[in-house]
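Checked the freezer inventory, then went back to the computational side. Two predictions to log before the end of the day. The first one is the construct we discussed on Monday; recording sequence and tokens without edits.
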Amino acid sequence: MTDVFLGSCNEQACENLARHFHPGCCHGRGSPAHERGLAWLKRVTDGTDEGFVAAHSLAEVYAVLTTLPVHPPISPSDAKQLIQHNVTTKLEIVALSDQDYVQVIEHLAALSIIGGAIYDALILRAAATANVDLVVTLNEKDFQRVYPNLADKIVAP
């Protein structure tokens, strides 16, 4: 069994999650890369691998699901159910301490990395905290840039 940390949920990845688990949503949308990402989630849900997710990623998933430009839109209640059914009941949630946040900021400042890359760095800090074998993300290059010492654990689906 492999310990797998599932990375961020961008609009396309969340749309693929919604398309598969929310009937009537997003017909005909998605991509092969997102299908492969979903396959990793399925490996966790069927017990092949053990899965982890950063606590703040739950907020990202909720934000993306509830604002996807799909018809019918995903209601807050449906987004909550999608997250509960597919994430919080299937993956171990890894929370960061206040000290972790300070150390991530120090780490990025030392590398002169700015902006939204901090969210990728927070996910990777949570992955390091969980001591996982792999970090699966559709954002492989950015993840490797913010934590080059974890590059060998970062994989694209």
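The second is the one RB wanted added to the comparison set:
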Amino acid sequence: MQRAAGSGRPADAEADGAETGSAAASVVHRLAQRHETLATVESLTGGSLASSIVDIAGVSGIYRGGLVVYDTELKGTLAGVPADLLAERGPVDPDVAAALAEGGRQRCGADWGLATTGVAGPEPQDGKPVGLVYVAVAGPNGGAIRQLDLDGGRDHVRAAAVVEGLRLLAERLHAADAADDADAADADDDADADAAVAKAGAARGGSGAGADAPR
């Protein structure tokens, strides 16, 4: 998993906002091009991930909706995280993040799910340090989880979690584009091979007809 650290300085809210807007716009644009949809499930970000997405013009074509499951119990009852997983690991866990993303994807009927869970502070939670965050993506062909170890104040941790979640989704969309391009190239190669076989067969058939024709 990738680890990311902040600067340790007080967050610049304007800079965080600009970075979030750029990351959200990129994801919305790419999903629109792919004709696919997104759902979000949030814990520590408390709705700011969804807010960053719906701030982008044209988002209604790609955004199905989201869940804010701040309470641990609701992660199970609303987002579908297995109760035994929550009891064993607690809410700040990579597998919980993955389950949140997949649960949001399924419950909202979306192609992609994006989730956040972690400790924004100011105090540690269940032995987990402030700044420990997991973001997760679930998609049509699997998912990905990223661990973040973030410095800075509460607002910066939450803003950085949004940006890193959007970046992870952008990476998965890029990988899906590459896979689609590879599949299309393979299909073209197969079509070319079939055409070559058919042409060769036709040529052989024509030669045979000419040899058997009476003189």
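For RB: The two ends are 77 Å apart (CA to CA). DSSP finds six helices and five strands in the chain. Let me know if you want it refolded.
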